[in-house]
Write a structure and sequence with these properties.
Length: 400
């Protein structure tokens, strides 16, 4: 209770309540689901996954853990959000990660974890470069602040449901394509960025340097210019990438059946106006990424019902997610106002550099309802709580 007393002396309790509510809201937004169950025992699922790089560094084995385990077992580790993949079993508590699963075996919260014996991982799990925190053809970590749109391949036969930049789908190197709004409609296409540089600060530097731009900060953080030759996001639901297209001849049949938009993947493609390297292949020889419209499942299902014996019919039978509902397994929403998610949120926020208030909140949450009751009259009148009143309150709590 010492931390709490410290905090109380830092601020009035009314401020504290407000801070607490803000933190609680933030925790809820980060983690809307109840993390009470690990999905390990359910087996392979389409689910949200998190690759633990800390555990990878310790065990030398790629891994991914479920939502609950990302919060309760690996909150202080270096996690990469993988979003969803199909047919994956949680690796927490197996030989692939370091340490027991505290969700499945809560007893290890109170015992020496050196003594636990790990579970056997699901041998049907697959691991791509995503599990090392890298994505796309460019093999880069995802940076939501500077990256252009990334789109996940829905088939995944060749790419393991990888995510791709629009530029990389077309064959450009992402950093060589300038999609910043210029205000005068002239693209500075050959104005290449250094790979890995933060796009935003880079743009700021250039703006100052060249003193020719009228771009405001608002515009910088706004949308990028559309990529010429790339279908706009509203026109399609999902994609099948050029690698999967190349691997499965049936995808070509889907393409013509559904009259899909497509873009060719031309490696080392250059922007128009740049010096074009001699193409070894003719246009039409390149493999393509195809774009599936929102009604693609209905159409494939109808085809499947009418033509089950065709090559495509058999292909669809093998990959039923192409024409059937393919729900993502998600834990129950956490509706409970005073639930553990709040405390776990505190834990999660603590793994980020946290201030003392956040730490104190964990203790605070245990006596939250009593304290709220105690504070209500003060909050209503705006009166500041004195130290003596607070001391009296905690003395009573200890007694009760
Ligand atoms: Zn798990
Ligand atoms: Zn871990
Ligand atoms: Zn776990
Ligand atoms: Zn890329
Ligand atoms: Zn693919």
């Amino acid at each position: 209770m010492r931390t709490l007393a410290m905090i109380i002396s830092m601020a009035t309790l009314i401020d504290y309540i407000e801070a607490q509510q803000a933190l609680e809201k933030e925790a809820k937004e980060l983690m809307p689901y109840d993390p009470k169950e690990c999905t390990f025992s359910i087996g392979p699922l389409r689910q949200d996954l998190y690759a633990c790089l800390s555990c990878y560094r310790k065990t030398g084995q790629l891994n991914s853990v479920c939502y609950a385990c990302s919060i309760k077992c690996h909150a202080s580790h270096d996690l990469v959000e993988l979003f969803t993949k199909r047919n994956r079993t949680c690796d927490c508590g197996t030989t692939r990660v370091d340490g027991p699963c505290f969700v499945r075996y809560p007893k290890w919260n109170n015992l020496d974890v050196k003594d636990y014996s790990p579970d056997i991982p699901d041998s049907s799990n697959k691991y791509s470069h995503n599990f090392e925190g890298r994505f796309c053809e460019c093999d880069m970590p995802y940076n939501p602040l500077s990256d252009s749109n990334m789109i996940q391949c829905t088939l995944g036969v060749a790419c393991d449901e990888d995510w791709y930049h629009e530029e990389c789908i077309m064959g450009y190197t992402p950093t060589t394509v300038d999609r910043r709004p210029t205000g005068n409609g002239v693209d500075k296409l050959n104005d290449l960025d250094e790979p890995g540089m933060d796009a935003e600060s880079d743009l700021r530097n250039k703006t100052v340097e060249k003193n020719e731009s009228t771009i405001s900060d608002d515009e910088i953080s706004g949308n990028l210019l559309p990529l010429e030759g790339f279908p706009s996001l509203e026109t399609f639901e999902t994609i099948i990438c050029w690698k999967c297209y190349n691997k499965c001849p049936e995808v070509k049949v889907i393409e013509s059946l559904l009259e899909c938009d497509f873009v060719e993947h031309i490696p080392n493609r250059q922007m128009q106006g740049s010096e074009e390297p001699l193409r070894k292949k003719l246009k039409g020889d390149y493999t393509k990424t195809i774009f599936l419209k929102s009604n693609y499942k209905e159409k494939l299902k109808a085809y499947m019902n009418d033509n089950p014996e065709t090559k495509l019919g058999k292909f669809l039978m093998k990959y039923p997610f192409l024409y059937e509902e393919d729900p993502v397994y998600r834990p129950e929403l956490d509706e409970d106002d005073t639930s553990s998610v709040f405390e776990l949120g505190v834990q999660k926020l603590n793994s980020v550099p946290a201030d003392q208030a956040a730490k104190g909140l964990a203790a605070y949450s245990q006596i939250k309802s009593k304290l709220t009751e105690f504070l209500k009259p003060f909050a209503e009148t705006g009166k500041i709580v004195t130290e003596d009143e607070v001391k009296a309150f905690f003395t009573n709590i200890k007694k009760s």
